[in-house]
Structure formats: structure tokens, C-alpha cells
Amino acid sequence: MNRIPGIYLPLIGFMMLSVIAQQGEAALGRSSDSVSTDRKALSAVHRATISRSGYRIQEIASDATTVREYVSPSGVVFAIVWNGRMHPDLTTLLGSYAAEYQAAVQQTSRKRGRRRRQVVSEQIVVETWGHMRNLQGRAYAPALIPSGVTIDEIR
Q1: Would you kindly state where each structural domain of the chain is located, as residue ranges?
Q2: pTM of the complete model beyond 0.70
Q3: Could you say which of 3.40.50.880, 3.40.33.10, 3.40.50.150, 3.30.499.10 is the CATH number of the domain covering 24-147?
Q4: How far apart are CA 51 and CA 22, in angstroms?
Q5: 59-97 core/surface letters (b: 16 or more CB in 10 A; e: else)
Q6: Cα–Cα distance, 117 to 81 (Å, whole number)
Q7: Within the chain, which residues score under 70 in pLDDT?
Q8: What is the SS3 assignment for 121?
């Protein structure tokens, strides 16, 4: 009988969590209707909906990551912020902006010794930072940010 050595079990568990986490975050520029779908796909719970002047924040949390979706009055996700033990799949988070982000990553040099990275393209900005077990980031589309809302409010 073939058995998986005990050392590989945590790795397999981590990989399964990664796949689950990658399946459901809301995409930038999508409708806020996706929040309940995201919650189910992440095996997450809806933690809060916070209303601010000019936008609202919908927060969902899984065991690995907390995602906050910033939603404009027209119901479009204009920014996404995350923190947790791992970065979510940015291809899923960025939706239709993913290809543009990947192209910008190729042209953005990574500074040695830096844990913070900012990738700027024509339509989106993606920032990541943190250290093991405390990874954070945000992605936003400047053109979608409602008037009167500042970048500093997206955190």
C-alpha cells in the first residue's frame, strides 16, 4: 500500500487551500453582486459591510485571507485589498485587467531586499507587501475610483 509520508501532508493541505482561495475573489471592475459567490467559493464568511461617503466596503474572510472589496455607488468594484497568510491569485482578482498587469510586471524591476512592490500600468495599480504569514496588498483602477475618494482611503 502506497502511503504519503507525513512530511508531505501539510504541503498538500496548503496546496488545496491555495486552489480554494484562487477560485473566488471578486474581479476588479466587476459588479458587487459577485460578493456572495466569492464568499461561497472561498469557504469564507461575510464579516462586514461598511458604508462610507461615496463607497461601501464588503469584507469576507476565509481561514487564509481576508478580502475587502471597495464598491462604488454604481455597484462596481473599484479596489480590492487583502491580507493574510498568502496572497490571493491576482489573475482572479484582477479579472479583465490581469493581462495588462502581467505585461507591466515584466517591465517592472524588483528591487533586491525589498518586500514592497508596486506595479503601475495604464489602467491599474497593484501593490504588495508584507512577510511570511502576514502578506498584504491592494489593487485599484484609478479611473473607477469615485470622485471625492482618495487613494489613502483604500487600505
Answers
A1: 24-147
A2: yes
A3: 3.40.33.10
A4: 27
A5: bbbbebbbbbbbbbeeebbbbbbbbbbbbbbbebbbbeb
A6: 15
A7: 1-26, 33-48, 112-114
A8: coil
